[in-house]
User: Fold these one by one.
Assistant:
Number 1:
Amino acid sequence: MATAQAIAPAVRPYYARHNTFSVFGAYSGDSSHILLGDAENRKLLEFGVAYGRKLYLNHIVNLQYNGEILPVALESDPVVLDTVNWTSPTVYTESGTEVQTTPCVPSSGSYSNTQGGTIYSYTYTLTCSRRWTIGEGMSPVGMQWNFLPRNKMQPFFIGHGGYMYSTKPIPVPEAGSFNFTFDFGAGFELYSSRTRSVRAEYRYHHISNHNTANQNPGIDNGLFQVTYSFGR
């Protein structure tokens, strides 16, 4: 008599690496008061590398350490150019620039007033430009949680803490060049093989000097990031 042999169902492999190396680019076209920051209309552009290591893995979650290094971190502030053309009592022009917490709004107008028989009058024009400041940063404290690691498409959560150093104070001249940073966000990671993947994510990103400078308006950005990862 033939005996039936039960065949165990094949277990799908994990799409997970022990060690992960990544390169990424991130961009935000605006800032606002999302949680903590008050500086508006700031842009952020970052290019960096990351290292991850698996800490815990089961069929539900892949818990990983994740640290990032930013050799290029660019921050952009709106700049107001104020030009005043005096027409009385003398004719001359004066101008100056200012980086302010609020967005720059172009405008123009005129002023005239008589004091002690003397007429004081001028026209003014406010124009807008941007100032890009280069810096570098590091986020040595970070974790990543990938869910459903047997699937090629995996949702994940991620978060970091670190610092950013810039060549000029940001986001205003009275703030500091050394700032603390943290971020957290979520996205999807798509594996093309068991060792290679692409991530797309959205993060809340915060920059502030923790009141170590005269002013600390802070910057809140919604950051979009794309990451290519490989490893073993």
Number 2:
Amino acid sequence: MAVTNREFNANEYLVQGGIGKSILEAKTDDPIFCQGDPGDAVLFLLRGQVVLTIVSPSGREATIQILNPGQFVGEECLTPERTERHCSAKALSKCTLVRIAKSEMIRVLREEPAMVQLMLRHYARQKTRMQADLVNHLFYTSEERLALTLLQLAQPGKNSSPHATIPRIRQETLAEIVGTTRSRVSYFMNRFRKKGLIDYGGPARIQVNNSLRAMVPSH
């Protein structure tokens, strides 16, 4: 009886170890990679959240993005001109990632159309997210941008739940993402809490209620 090759499943490939792959566990605040490190691997986030930061030549640090499960980390290393990491990645909470060696990722992209399609969808979502972020900074107030950031992190209402929890994020980090000052973030967070839109579920968690959506106007 002829043996047929098992059909490649991109989603299965991204959630397990194997040749050229390994499982990486990170605790809160652990570095995933640092700006200037060799760009030798792509990571896929299975659990937790990762924050990306960049430092300018003058020494100024800025937060670029916070990544959620199901997103790639450091995929820009696949471009020929990116031999070093252009930013740093740090665990915002306990994380599980699949580390895929650059050579292995390139091989899979060359041989498996399903992986190419998955990566194209990823890049399309990233571009859409960047465009949305630009619109938000142009037309939303800083309070509305903070509410939107918390909603994007927590995705409350998923699985019919009226709320969700996220790791307790430093207000300085939220201020960098929103584009405002730490004092303004503190003021808005207190307002949200008094209105019952968020709550602090212990020293390390923030509960984001679905009612926070009322703070964000429709496009």
Number 3:
Amino acid sequence: MDAMILTMYIIVLVYFLLGFIAFYFINQKKEPHESRKSWIKTITYFFIINIVFFSIAINPLVFRYLAVIIIIAGFIELFKLFRESGYKLKLLFTLSIIVLTIFSFGFFIYSGFEKGLILFAFMILSIFDSFSQITGEIFGRKKLFPKISPQKTVEGLIGGTIVAIMSALLLRSLIPAPPLKAMLLAAGVVFLAFIGDFFKSYYKRKYNVKDFSNLIPENGGFLDRFDSLIAGGAFIGILGLSIHL
């Protein structure tokens, strides 16, 4: 592992340490069964982050194979809810397939880019996901979309966005890029990640389910766990493709 990748991994560990400390105090106020579910989700997410990080750091080709698995699993989960509903809401299902196809196309392109750019976007997305939840649970008061995603708050979105965009200054050596460009790139990744998360939540709400599947403990399935990565990665992939065209 080269020095830059080691530095990036140390940054990942520091962020997770801060997250673990925050969740420790957050979970102290929860009921035991809710606290247990939260810890399972957090620890599972930590292992997922490590798997994806090292698949990129050691050999990006491994991440490309992982991206294909994520894409296929996402389509399977969409179809699974459609089938279990008795094939209801056909228009919603069709539109969702179109949206996921566009995002998956961009995500697949992103998975073939150079290591530094893949890691930059992945780490921004991971920080955004983690700190949206942390700041939302600590400071959250105003619900963002109460009828679609009742757990998400305006404060959580703002907190996660600020931490992620500011973190671009720590991670910009991966690209490399001047500070403003790195922050703008991070902002684009975060925005698309938010859009992807919204579409996922809307689809689940319309089909009246909490999770896409139980394949990933307490994380709601592949689309629940990787929706932000697919959409945020798609931003990088489509942006990069448009620049080269």
